[in-house]
Amino acid sequence: MALHRTSGRRGLGAALASTTMLLWGVLPLALEATLVEIDALTLTWARFAGSALVLFAVLAARRNLPSLRGLERGHIALVLVATLFLALNYAAYIIGLERTSAADAQVVIQLAPVLLAVAGVFVFREPFTRLQWTGLGVLIGGLALFVAGRGGDAGANPTLPVGQAIIVFAALTWVVYGLAQKQLLHGWSSFHITLYIYVGCTLAFTPFAEFGRLAGLEAPGWWLLAFCAANTIVGYGAFAEALEHWEASRVGAVLALVPLVTLGCSALLSSHWPGSVPPQTLSASSWAGALLVVAGALVAALAARNEAA
Questions:
Q1: Are 105 and 51 in contact (CB under 8 A)?
Q2: First vs last C-alpha separation in the chain
Q3: Residue 275, by phi and psi: left (phi above 0), alpha (psi -120 to 50) or beta?
Q4: 243 and 117 in contact (C-beta within 8 Å)?
Q5: Rounded mean pLDDT of the chain?
Q6: Which of 35, 50, 200, 251 has the fewest Cβ atoms within 10 Å of its own Cβ atom?
Q7: 110, 258 contact by CB (below 8 A)
Q8: Which one, of 102, 111, 104, 108, lies nearest residue 27 by Cα?
Q9: Is the pLDDT of residue 301 over 70?
Q10: What is the pLDDT of residues 97-125, one digit of tens each?
C-alpha cells in the first residue's frame, strides 16, 4: 500500500512537471506577440494581477483563504525572499526576451532547472545518480554550444549578448525562488504560498505599470494578455505542486525539455500561420546545442526514472 502511494505521488509529480513544461514552452511566443502592444513591465504586472485575482477567487469560493495569523517570522522571511526573486526573475526574463528571441530565452533559461537540480542535491540532500550528473554535463555543454553559435548573429542584433546575460541573471534568481518555495512547502499549502507571492509581486510592479496602454488594447491583445496571465497561474501552480510530490532535481530535469516545445510550436505556427510569431533562425551549431540540451535533459530524466524503479 505504501509503495502504491509513493508510486502515485511520483506519477502525479511527473504529470504536473510535464504540464508546466508545455505551458512554459508556449509562453515566450505569446509574450513576444503581446510585447508588440504593451511594454514589458506593464505586461508583467498584468500577469501577476490577473493570476492573483483568479487564485484569490478560487480559494475564497472554497473557503480556503490563508490566514496571516499563521505566519511566523521564518515564514515571512521566506515569503519575502520568494516574492523578491520571482519578481526579479519575471522582469529579467521578459527584458531579456525583448533583446533576444523566444529560442534564445528558452534555451539559455535552462540554466535555471540545472542549477535547481544541483541545489536540490546539496540543500535538500536529494538523490542524484552518476548518470544524472552526466546528463546535466551534456546539457551544460549544449547550452555553451548554443550561445557560441548565436555569437555570429550579434552583428545583426547588437542587443543579443546583453539579452542573453540578462536571461542568465533571470535563471539565477529563479533558483533562489525555487529553493524558498520548496522550503515553504514543508508547512504550507502550495496555493496559499502562491497567493502571497502573486499579491506581493503585483504590488512590486504597480509603480512601473502604464495602465493607459492596457486601456488601449483591442480584443486580440486582451486575449493574448489573458492567456499569459492564465499561463502564469496554471504553470506555476503545477510547478509548486510538482515540487510537493517530486524531488526538485527531477522536476528540474523535466523542465529542461521546454526549448523543444518552444521550437516545435514556433515551427508549427510559422508554417501554418506565417507572421503570427517571429521566425526562430538558428545556425547549425545553435541547433546542435539545443538538441544537446534536450538530450542531456532526457538522460537525466531517464536516469531518475530508472532509479525510482
A1: no
A2: 16
A3: left
A4: no
A5: 82
A6: 35
A7: yes
A8: 102
A9: no
A10: 988 888 888 888 877 877 777 787 777 77
Chain mean position to CA 153: 25
Is residue 160 a contact partner of residue 33, using CB atoms and an 8 Å limit? no
Q: How far apart are CA 133 and CA 293, in angstroms?
A: 13
pLDDT the model gives residue 302:
64
Listed by start position, the domains of the chain span: 2-308
Give me the residue label for grid cell 508549427.
268
Q: How far apart are CA 189 and CA 273, in angstroms?
A: 41
Maximum pairwise Cα distance, the chain: 61
Q: What is residue 188's DSSP assignment?
A: S
Q: How far is CA 148 from the centre of its chain?
A: 23
Mean of pLDDT values over 67-73: 66
AA identity, residue 42: T
6-62 tens-digit pLDDT: 556 667 777 888 888 889 899 999 998 888 889 999 999 999 999 899 999 999 999
| Collapsed DSSP state (helix, strand, coil) of residue 159 | coil
Instruction: Write out the three cell numbers for 96.
Output: 531579456
Report the 10 Å Cβ neighbour count for 251: 26
For 289: left if phi > 0, alpha if psi spans -120 to 50, otherwise beta; the answer is alpha
The DSSP secondary-structure symbol of 151 reads: G
pTM of the model: 0.82
